[in-house]
Specification:
Blueprint (H helix, E strand, L loop, with lengths): L3 H12 L12 H10 L5 H14 L3 H6 L2 H8 L6 H16 L8 H4 L7 H12 L8 H10 L9 H14 L5 H15 L17 H4 L17 E11 L2 E6 L10 E2 L2 E2 L2 H9 L3 E6 L3 E4 L4 E11 L12 E5 L10 H13 L6
Parallel strand pairs: 1-7
Antiparallel strand pairs: 1-2, 1-4, 2-3, 2-8, 5-7, 6-7
Length: about 350
Amino acid sequence: MISFADHVLQWFDQHGRKDLPWQQDINPYRVWVSEIMLQQTQVQTVIPYYERFMRSFPDLASLADAKIDAVLQHWSGLGYYARARNLHRAAQMVRDQYSGVFPATFDDVVCLPGIGRSTGGAILALARDERHAILDGNVKRVLARHYAIAGWPGKNDVANKLWSLAETNTPGQRSAAYTQAIMDLGAILCTRGKPACEACPVAASCEARLANAVDQYPGRKAKRVKPLRQTTMVMAIRDDEIYLERRPPSGIWGGLWSLPEVDSVDEWCRQMLNGLNDETEQRETLRHSFSHYDLDIQPVVVRVATVSRRVADTPDATWHSLYDEPPGGMAAPVQKLINTLKIEQNVPNS
C-alpha cells in the first residue's frame, strides 16, 4: 500500500518547486534565512528580499558582524521586524558560542532566538536531510483537511493532534524532499480558498473532501473586531532634510528609524525647536493594519527655518537628506509618508 508520504513525494517529483533561490547552494545558513523570511510571508514576496539579503550577507559571519541598522534596512517593507532582530542576534550567538558553525543538534537549534519547533525542524530537514517533522501554516491545512481535524490549530489540543500526524507521516528517507513537498502541496494545491482537490495526490483518502467539507478545515479562530489606535507623527523638514529618530530596540518597529511620534506637535516644537518653526500642516490620516490592531497615523508637516542645537545629529537621531538612502530599517508607512515629501520636492525615489 502506498503511504501518504509516497503519494506526496511522487507528486513533488513532477510538480514541486525546485528552483527557489534558497534551494540552490543549500547550506543551513541559507535555509535558515529563508525559513525566517517565510514566516507569515508568501514565497513571491520573499524572493527579492532574500536575494538582496544574500548579496549583502552571503554567510553567517557577515550577518553576525553587520550593524543592526543594515540588517533592518534590508528587511524594510517585509514586516514582522522582530524576525530580523532575532536573526541578527542568533547569528551573533552562533558566532560567539558555536565558533560560527550552525548548531548540529535540534535542541541547540531551537534555543536560538526566533527558531521554534517547526522552523528548527525545517532547517535541519531541508539543509541536512534529517528526519524532523514540521507544522507550518501550509502543513496544518493539509493535515487538518486530510484527517478532518476539527478546531482552530492555535489551540493546544488541536495542535497536538496535528503534530502527532506530522510526526507519523514524515518518512525516514528523503526527508528534505518530503518537507518541501508537503509545504508545496499546501501552497500550490491545498490553498485556503479554492483548493485544487482534483489535482491533489492524496485526494482519494482526504476525509474533508470525502465529506464535501473542505472549506470547514482547518477551523478558524473566533473573529474579534480589531481595536483602532491613533498616533501623531511629526514630519520636520529643513530644506531637503527630514528629522528621523531610531525607535527603542523592542516593541512596535523596534530598532527602526522613524518619524517622531508625539502627543502634542506644539509641545514637541517648543522642546526640540524652541518654537522656531515657520509653519505646520496637518496631512491626511494614514491607516496601517497590524495583525492585532489598526493604527491611524496623523502626519503633521513642520517646516523648520532655524534649528535649535537640541536636535543636532546623535546616534539615535539625525537630519536625513531626502536624496540619501535611509540610515537603517524603516517601517512601510513611514517610508510611504517620506516618499510623499520626495514627490513634492522632486526628489527621485531610491
